[in-house]
Amino acid sequence: MSARMSDVLAMLERLVAFDTISRNSNLDLIDFVKGWLARHGVESLLVQSDDGTKANLLATVGPAVPGGVVLSGHTDVVPVEGQPWTSDPFRVVERSGRLYGRGTCDMKAFLAIALALVPEMRGLKRPIHLALSYDEEIGCRGAPRLIEAMLGQLPRPAAVIVGEPTEMRVISAHKGIAVLRTVVTGHEAHSSQTHRGVSAVTTAARLITHLDDLARQRAQDGPFSDGFEPPYTTIHVGTVHGGTAVNIISRECSFQWDVRSISEDGPEAILEGFREYCRTVVEPPMRRIGPGSGVTTELLVEAPALAHEDHNPAIELACRLAAVDTTGRVPFAAEAGLFQRAGLPSVICGPGSIDQAHQPDEFITLEQVRAGLGFQRRLIDALS
Ligand SMILES: [Zn+2]
């Protein structure tokens, strides 16, 4: 039996109908997938989050032997609140060759194709492992324990294909991400007594400017990694909250920032340098006025970059299946860097365009779904 486009579209409809915005549980979707696989004789292993409200799913289709290929995708989607959607985000609607719905492009179409093809995977000589994660959109939080379970319980795969939307281009490298929160504690005083207080707001402004200087330095002097747009590590402050009234020298101000790093210039050195700057330059004068004042920085989320490797079996496989001979690099973070860190050759290649990911009226074209279907079919052939 061969899966038709209509089977893939029906599967996509089912997957999109589960509201798996990262803050919600993904268990209904996982149960559905587990049931679908069970009906085709495939067992699933669930790897739960600490609080049990979410789960990763691992399933091996075909013989349990080494040398298989992992198809990896996340089950969570980004929020829809505050976005002007034309139709219900959790119902797939087709309009002029496009399938609209939250997650159609990022990245439930990739998963829908893999699941719809399971009935065609009977003749596999090497396995296809399905790896569905949770909480990718909020910092790849589910993938580390998924990977741990994979290494511990499955025969070692030869390659990992992460199906993030790349319009079926083969992506050999992505940037890493670190999300940080800095909290400045000042010393309160009446705003007419500036010599008696330490303003948390002013100190935060100074620190933000310092980060901006670090960012400009990188834009100017590198290090650079060709193929990325932009080709250097970026540092960006996204939110600031501080102060309570205009006539009070503020006691607290916090800001969140992220570092999106090329593999040659990771976030560790930036964070270490920033803490050193706080310790040696910023805090001593603060403490002379307010002994309890200071700056703390916490790493909230981290996912490593996927570094380009000249000889990577995952890239060679994806290029063959996609019939392309060039590779690209993307600035967004993904789970492929985590797989690579675990020693598994990894690549990103999936249907849909990143331009439509996270957008209101997110869509994937039928043409991209067809291309993704062709790619995964050729993978089945290659492993059969
Ligand atoms: Zn994604």
Q: Briefly note the CATH topology name of the largest domain.
A: Aminopeptidase
**Structural Rg:** 23 Å
Largest sheet: 6 strands, mixed
Based on DSSP secondary structure assignment, what is the total number of beta strands? Answer: 17
Question: What is the H/E string?
Answer: HHEEEEEHEHEEEEHEEEHEHEHEEH
CATH architecture of the largest domain: 3-Layer(aba) Sandwich
Judged by helices, strands and strand pairing, the structural class is alpha/beta
Q: What's the domain count?
A: 2
The shape, in one word, is: elongated
User: What is the strand content?
Assistant: 15-25%
Query: Would you state the CATH class of the largest domain?
Result: Alpha Beta
Question: Strands of the biggest beta sheet: in what spatial order?
Answer: 1-2-6-3-7-16
What can you see in these coordinates?
The chain has 384 residues and is of the alpha/beta class. It is built from nine helices and 17 strands. A hairpin with a 6-residue loop joins strand 1 and strand 2. Helix 1 packs across helix 3 and helix 3 crosses helix 9. The protein starts with a helix and ends with a helix. The mean pLDDT is 96. Zinc ion (ZN) binds next to helix 3.
Features:
single chain, 384 residues, alpha/beta, Aminopeptidase, Alpha-Beta Plaits, 2 domains, six-stranded mixed sheet, four-stranded antiparallel sheet, 9 helices, 34% helix, binds zinc ion
Give a concise summary.
The protein has 384 residues and is α/β, with parallel strands linked by helices. Helix content is 34%, strand content 24%.
